[in-house]
């Protein structure tokens, strides 16, 4: 099976501070994969390195078979996009939804912008009335739908999801998770999800990697998550702390 995301001995640092150590992952096209672990374990840093936002790393990163450079480049931006945790902070407060969604198309010289914007709004469950609204005129769930739409404007094959529901009300979280599941199926996407919420992993993902202190301590299938069948003591501890529950959507 073809790899969508491949990391081989990736160590990431911020200046003199090492964050991750020898991370190796192989995520297949069409797979939904999660990074879980306590805060500060390096999960989001891995996403940022893949997205080109954490350029100080050693090792090998490949996206859809292409070797990843240290930084942001047009090819990788079209192939891979990131959805951030805070749907308000990730959207410019003085830009309308239309501007936010049109910008990637303008940067990459893609036409039919109005049509594409309305098509993507429909895809994330928002009608055309939202097109000229500002972020403060929308709920948190609606803003996160816009953030997901923005990430999909260039038709990437890989989405990096950084705690995409943790800033939302519990009642809205299930809506966004169902949306992500549908979009993955319809657009044949690959997901790499960062979360601390194991029920979310159980609902959305195929496999997961447990991280601790910047290292991957175990890679497991979701069936192991549902049964608590982990070999690493920390992974078992994480499972016990979650209560071993499944997400209800």
Could you characterize the architecture of this molecule?
By secondary structure, this protein is an alpha/beta fold. It has one domain: Rossmann fold. The protein is built from 9 helices and 11 strands. The strands form 2 sheets. It has a 6-stranded mixed beta sheet, sandwiched between helices. Strands 1, 2, 3, 5 and 6 form a 5-stranded antiparallel beta sheet that branches. A hairpin with a 2-residue loop joins strand 1 and strand 2. Helix 3 packs across helix 4. The longest helix is centred in the last third of the chain and has 18 residues. The two termini are 30 Å apart. The C terminus is likely disordered.
Can you list the strand order of the major beta sheet? 7-8-9-4-10-11
CATH superfamily, called what?
Answer: P-loop containing nucleotide triphosphate hydrolases
User: Mean pLDDT, rounded to whole units?
Assistant: 92
**Approximately what portion of the residues adopt beta-strand conformation?**
15-25%
What is the count of helical runs? 9
> N-to-C SSE series?
EEEEHEEHEHHHEHEHEEHH
The count of domains is 1
Class from secondary-structure proportions: alpha/beta
Point out poorly predicted stretches: 245-249
Give the biggest beta sheet: 6 strands, mixed
Helix content: 25-40%
The CATH topology comes to Rossmann fold
CATH architecture: 3-Layer(aba) Sandwich
Radius of gyration computed on alpha carbons: 18 Å
* Shape field: globular
Q: How far is the first residue's CA from the last residue's CA? A: 30 Å
Strand segment count: 11
- CATH class value: Alpha Beta
């Amino acid at each position: 099976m073809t790899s969508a995301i491949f990391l081989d001995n990736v160590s990431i640092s911020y200046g003199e501070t090492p964050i991750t150590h020898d991370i190796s992952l192989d995520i297949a096209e069409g797979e939904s994969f999660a990074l879980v672990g306590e805060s500060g374990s390096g999960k989001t840093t891995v996403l940022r390195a893949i997205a080109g936002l954490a350029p100080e790393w050693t090792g090998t990163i490949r996206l859809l078979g292409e070797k990843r450079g240290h930084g942001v480049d047009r090819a990788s931006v079209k192939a891979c996009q990131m959805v951030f945790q805070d749907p308000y902070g990730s959207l410019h407060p003085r830009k309308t939804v239309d501007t936010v969604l049109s910008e990637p198309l303008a940067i990459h010289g893609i036409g039919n912008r109005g049509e594409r914007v309305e098509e993507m709004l429909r895809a994330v469950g928002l009608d055309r009335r939202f097109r000229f609204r500002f972020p403060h005129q929308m709920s948190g769930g609606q803003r996160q739908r816009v953030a997901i739409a923005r990430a999909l404007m260039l038709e990437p094959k890989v989405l990096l999801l950084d705690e995409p529901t943790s800033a939302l009300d519990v009642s809205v979280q299930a809506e966004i998770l169902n949306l992500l599941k549908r979009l993955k199926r319809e657009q044949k996407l690959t997901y790499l999800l960062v979360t601390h919420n194991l029920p979310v992993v159980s609902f959305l993902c195929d496999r997961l990697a447990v991280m601790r202190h910047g290292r991957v301590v175990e890679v497991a299938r979701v069936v192991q998550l549902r049964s608590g069948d982990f070999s690493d003591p920390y992974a078992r501890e994480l499972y016990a702390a979650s209560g071993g529950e499944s997400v209800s959507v």
